[in-house]
Amino acid sequence: MTREENDLVTRVGPGTPMGTLMRQYWVPALLSSELPKPDCDPVRVMLLGEKLIAFRDSLGRVGLIQNHCPHRGASLFFGRNGDCGIRCVYHGWQFDIHGNCIDMPNEPNESDFKRKVKALAYPCVERGGLVWAYLGPRAELPPLPDIEVNQLPEGECAIVPTMLECNWLQAVEGEIDTSHSGFLHFGSIQPDDVAEGTFLHYTVKDRAPRYSVVDTDYGVMYGAYRPARPGYTYWRIAQFMFPFFTQTPEGILGHHVITNAWVPMDDYHTMAFIMIRKDPREQAWPGRHPIQGNADKYPTVQTPVLPNTSEWFGRFVSAVNATNDYGLDRARQRNGTDYSGIPYLPAQDRAMQESMGSIYDRTQEHLAVSDVMVIRVRRRLLAAARALAERQVVPPGVDCPAVYRNRSGSIILPEGADWIQATKELRQAFTDHPEVLLQQP
Amino acid sequence: MTREENDLVTRVGPGTPMGTLMRQYWVPALLSSELPKPDCDPVRVMLLGEKLIAFRDSLGRVGLIQNHCPHRGASLFFGRNGDCGIRCVYHGWQFDIHGNCIDMPNEPNESDFKRKVKALAYPCVERGGLVWAYLGPRAELPPLPDIEVNQLPEGECAIVPTMLECNWLQAVEGEIDTSHSGFLHFGSIQPDDVAEGTFLHYTVKDRAPRYSVVDTDYGVMYGAYRPARPGYTYWRIAQFMFPFFTQTPEGILGHHVITNAWVPMDDYHTMAFIMIRKDPREQAWPGRHPIQGNADKYPTVQTPVLPNTSEWFGRFVSAVNATNDYGLDRARQRNGTDYSGIPYLPAQDRAMQESMGSIYDRTQEHLAVSDVMVIRVRRRLLAAARALAERQVVPPGVDCPAVYRNRSGSIILPEGADWIQATKELRQAFTDHPEVLLQQP
Amino acid sequence: MTREENDLVTRVGPGTPMGTLMRQYWVPALLSSELPKPDCDPVRVMLLGEKLIAFRDSLGRVGLIQNHCPHRGASLFFGRNGDCGIRCVYHGWQFDIHGNCIDMPNEPNESDFKRKVKALAYPCVERGGLVWAYLGPRAELPPLPDIEVNQLPEGECAIVPTMLECNWLQAVEGEIDTSHSGFLHFGSIQPDDVAEGTFLHYTVKDRAPRYSVVDTDYGVMYGAYRPARPGYTYWRIAQFMFPFFTQTPEGILGHHVITNAWVPMDDYHTMAFIMIRKDPREQAWPGRHPIQGNADKYPTVQTPVLPNTSEWFGRFVSAVNATNDYGLDRARQRNGTDYSGIPYLPAQDRAMQESMGSIYDRTQEHLAVSDVMVIRVRRRLLAAARALAERQVVPPGVDCPAVYRNRSGSIILPEGADWIQATKELRQAFTDHPEVLLQQP
């Protein structure tokens, strides 16, 4: 990758090619629960390099408005939220969720200046616990993507937000890199530690899977495969969906419902929203962490989170971070309790992604067979950003919400089976599946 | 305002047009009390982007000398102050308040190198508790400005210093913006909360005053007016005086003596010196905060200050600052105790000024009728800086100390009166006034 | 000095002229004791502007390898050290001390990609408690310099490491500047405080010595001289040795064995390694601090050190530093306990060197007679860097380890003696000296 390509694919501020690409899509901005009720406290939100203030108005609608009051620039974070708008406390100018100035009480009655003043405000909609925002140019808004986990009935989806101190693409690349699981996460687990017949048994028995990668209408899909019991192949199937969504191959294909959003706050910070269907059956599945024979060897899935502050990067900061080397414990690393010595699974990923630096210099890397998915996703991103910039080509999925109806997961197929054909139905979201057998053939 | 104008009007380092303008004037550098006695500890002073060391010599004279020893650059902050000079502890070179090297003990006796070495040192004078410095080019020093509050007999003037973390112009603009008082400071107060006939009653009864702005020989003056009782008009009269002084309209015109200096430490930090005449009668005046019926609704005027440190920006830092959102209390904001939820009046101002960012991007603003004073002051500053840079025009007031003899304040005049004529005598500083009636007509 | 020369002589990153010069030499990278045993924890090392990971492999050999894994850039600091290599925990790639990729377990067995991947790794050797690294271009390594103190039998050399927050040249210049001792360190000591006949007596009796400076094959040597008892001269003899070594004149010439390395971590941080022969006889010598009549007047030689952290600049940070003004105690300064008020000798030096700023702007200085050694060393550095850049001239000492065989120290010679001839033998390292008389003639 050239330095120019690296810049192009990573930078997302206003006016950049990748920033313009992302602004074609709805983007998750914050949790609905961060604005718990009408007229509650505003929240500082950094999104795609823009400083914004989120608020919920008296009717319960969410507004996402420029930080600086259009008048003389005081922060609207200090604003009074009420009467269907946020009111700057400097001179009392009030704005509704559309950015209209609906009151300008320090001006003479006869003035109509307030009609000429408009704050930058982005349309927001809420679904499944997320506030989605549209920072793009269209007057007629595009549809929300048909992401299954985000459309589950209330209470069926868990969302885990975490702030990452690195560029969004490092986070995405970490997610679509299935190869690292057998090392970073499960490198200490030996085949004998895990019951024969489980996914994890095959994962740790062969840590160098092969890959099949295909371009799709929503982005890129891969199947990583290795031998299962004689005559069968173990497949891990996962997706990258434009512009920054990933679906992971953990869990049973057809049963597992997960989508992760890696939303750029700016070029150097990323807000991760892990969205997963709560599924008691999956928890009990013997091939998945953390329920295994030797539970000590499995990294903890939940990391402690620091209390939110009102700083721009003060939301959902992990207590396990670069300042404490992610809890690195060399004794655990040495004695094999953890391969990495980092006892929290998500922190293992962050340690890798953040230690690359704020924006990794990809001119220095050496990509291998296992990076075929990473390579393909970069190509698609670059191609889409260039096509939009040069030929105004609408990027994948913007006008086709249905392409997001995908599931990821693991499955065991007969050797030689066409994985794409064989899994077509199980990868389809929003269908009523018959009961899936928990013990795969 | 264009980006170029914004840069020109805000930046004050050596060689910048506005920095050159400010260097035509005497500028308040620190408090006399920061150097309490001869040969006391030196103080780090950042002024107009220059790192300086202030010290009081054995004769009680104040020196303001370059931070880096002219020899090899060690900081003179560590210097030994005594024997009528500050002595670098590296090699013992000693400098007097004029910057002369008066001892060079590590050189051979026959050397006269010390006559060739001169430290940058700025002339200082003390008056009214302030140390004034002249950082300009003239060998024959200009006169000090005739600022009344700074010439009161000892003990009659209170000086409140505070460090602001933003560009000086944001502070000045906040001060000359009388419109915000009715919102940021008194937005929670209703007319019925305040006795009829008081200034504050009219202020909160009509929060959209009209403005009359006039250019003067010292800068700009405004009168903001709104109806008082029938047949009368309530006037708030205040001044901007070159290059960064303001006088506020609180208090009774003719009685109220106040001047505020907003001294640039560098482009991103400002030292405010609020200088006000201690006046027991004024405190009792029923039209002024904080003595009112419902005292709970008045913001606290004094903010707690952190202990000084010896860092460059470690003097007079408010404990109520950006790191704690200026003590923002959403419950107080919501229940109307404070309009802003910030319980300290000066912190309310700083929250607005600092939240604009270090240097606000004025290309983004939307100025209204109430900003007419702000607009005029900018124009005068830009014009003066350009006239100096392009045609060597001496800026307003430099050679005319008497133009600073002004008072600001509030007054109630008959409807239709010419405010400038009617207040001419009351606005004149240094006169012996007859007793002013505390209850205005 | 011009700004260009100042940049040229101070900056040491890859590709800079001075950085290229330094890369011709072996440089001390860390202490052997920082890697106490085979397969111990890796250490982050910043060296000449490069982020590196030091580790000791299973055979006890030290590796110094690029921080970012050549694969996708995760930090090798988190790596598993064992089996004769460091293994990235992201995908298990393992590298030996030569940078060879010796295992790539996530690739298919048939892949030979690992032969194509090589990490940047610098050769290291250990001697006398130091790990030396060679960051230069030669395939055939140059010899280590014959620095005596680094070749003493185990246990006879003490190494004191300290991190300095300034450019390396400020540290070097502080060391070769013998003039400051009589002020910064001993300015409070009067001749009567010290026994007649001791070195220190003469030092404080005449604080403006003369200088004789000579270019040598290893760098520059000076002799600073002043009167001793009638008919004799007190000489302080010290060296600068390419590229950043100094030897100090404290102690008895012929007896005193010391070399200090001022190793650039980057342009703004320096790691000092003070290497000194432990010598019980020297401690008792009455002419040296700290054993004197009035012990209170001598600054403490050891400063407290903060616990190491795993940050890039987290090793050997003094607890007495800029954040606390180096323990400055104005009362001690004022009452003459310490000339500087800083009670620790090394902190006195750091206060001067660091307060010049990260990289001092040498266009502002005024060099005097006492700076003749500083001037000469700069010239030699500039000349050597330019000769290398322009004419590929191998810099002094690179191929001639024997030129480093020097001792520094103090001596009293008959008036008019040729100091160079008279001290030739005593300055020679590695010789068996007859017993040196502790009381000089």
From TrEMBL, chains A, B, C:
<keyword id="KW-0411">Iron-sulfur</keyword>
<keyword id="KW-0479">Metal-binding</keyword>
<dbReference type="InterPro" id="IPR050584">
    <property type="entry name" value="Cholesterol_7-desaturase"/>
</dbReference>
<keyword id="KW-0001">2Fe-2S</keyword>
<dbReference type="GO" id="GO:0051537">
    <property type="term" value="F:2 iron, 2 sulfur cluster binding"/>
</dbReference>
<dbReference type="InterPro" id="IPR045623">
    <property type="entry name" value="LigXa_C"/>
</dbReference>
<keyword id="KW-0560">Oxidoreductase</keyword>
<dbReference type="InterPro" id="IPR017941">
    <property type="entry name" value="Rieske_2Fe-2S"/>
</dbReference>
<dbReference type="GO" id="GO:0046872">
    <property type="term" value="F:metal ion binding"/>
</dbReference>
<dbReference type="Pfam" id="PF19301">
    <property type="entry name" value="LigXa_C"/>
</dbReference>
<feature type="domain" description="Rieske">
    <location>
        <begin position="26"/>
        <end position="133"/>
    </location>
</feature>
<protein>
    <submittedName>
        <fullName>Rieske 2Fe-2S domain-containing protein</fullName>
    </submittedName>
</protein>
<dbReference type="GO" id="GO:0016705">
    <property type="term" value="F:oxidoreductase activity, acting on paired donors, with incorporation or reduction of molecular oxygen"/>
</dbReference>
<dbReference type="Pfam" id="PF00355">
    <property type="entry name" value="Rieske"/>
</dbReference>
<keyword id="KW-0408">Iron</keyword>
<dbReference type="InterPro" id="IPR036922">
    <property type="entry name" value="Rieske_2Fe-2S_sf"/>
</dbReference>
<dbReference type="GO" id="GO:0004497">
    <property type="term" value="F:monooxygenase activity"/>
</dbReference>
